[in-house]
Design a protein that fits this description.
heterodimer; A: mainly beta; seven-stranded mixed β-sheet; four-stranded antiparallel β-sheet; globular; B: mainly beta; six-stranded mixed β-sheet; 0% helix; 56% strand
């Protein structure tokens, strides 16, 4: 079965510091992978998605970047964090599972920029 | 672009009662998927129920059922016999089948449901 791992679960970083969040999936190959951000009390905003190694699409201009160095690895990065980067970040895998299609989510990373 | 609207930011229901959460969406697609996700305080996203647009029969999963009105672009979630563990944020989501290789998954802003003992 498909599983998705995301770490770290919680992160507190100073303004101006770099960021690296990692997401890996198991039980599938060539997955569609996504990074979402959820601000406090709000819905999920799509940041990046990737359909394959080295293929990254950005949905909104921002201080963040994403990379996909391996088929089942998706990384969210920043060179210099801003206060506005604080939020809850979710990695997701979307694809067919048997006769269905659905999204599987990591457990999320709560990022606080101080 | 697809949009998903959840018009009820917050709702409450008495334990054992029934509650309905509303969701509308806008799309020009004919084939797509709709989902309800639950996000408890742990913030883990949990799939509650899914509906394929080509299926006329409404999906059900135990105490959870949907009222899917394709022409009206409406997809409401009914929770029967509400339990304290149902307290969570509920997100309606729309998924377009892959175009250029990518699934497009769009979420509403969510409805915060509180079940009152």
């Amino acid at each position: 079965s498909q599983t998705i791992h995301q770490w770290p679960a919680t992160l507190v970083q100073p303004v101006g510091s770099p960021l690296s969040l990692e997401c890996t999936v198991e039980g599938t190959s060539n997955p569609n992978l996504y990074w979402y951000r959820q601000a406090a009390g709000r819905g999920l905003q799509l940041l990046f998605y990737s359909v394959g190694i080295g293929q990254i699409s950005s949905e909104v201009p921002q201080n963040l970047s994403a990379s996909r160095p391996q088929d089942r690895q998706f990384i969210l990065s920043s060179k210099k964090l801003l206060l506005s980067d604080s939020g809850f970040y979710l990695c997701a895998w979307v694809g067919p599972t048997g006769d269905n299609t659905e999204a599987f989510f990591g457990q999320g990373t709560r990022l606080t920029v101080v | 672009a697809q949009t998903v609207t959840q018009s009820q930011p917050e709702m409450s229901v008495q334990e054992a009662e029934t509650v309905t959460l509303s969701c509308t969406y806008d799309t020009s697609e004919n084939n797509y998927y709709l989902f309800w996700y639950k996000q408890p305080p742990s913030r883990q996203m949990i799939l509650v129920i899914r509906q394929e647009a080509y299926k006329q029969q409404n999906a059900t999963e135990n105490r959870f059922s949907v009222n899917f009105q394709k022409a009206a672009k409406s997809f409401s979630l009914k929770i029967s016999d509400s339990q304290l563990g149902d307290t969570a944020m509920y997100f309606c989501a729309f998924m377009k089948p892959p175009g250029a290789g990518s699934y497009q998954l769009t979420f509403g802003k969510g409805t915060k449901l509180s079940v009152i003992p």
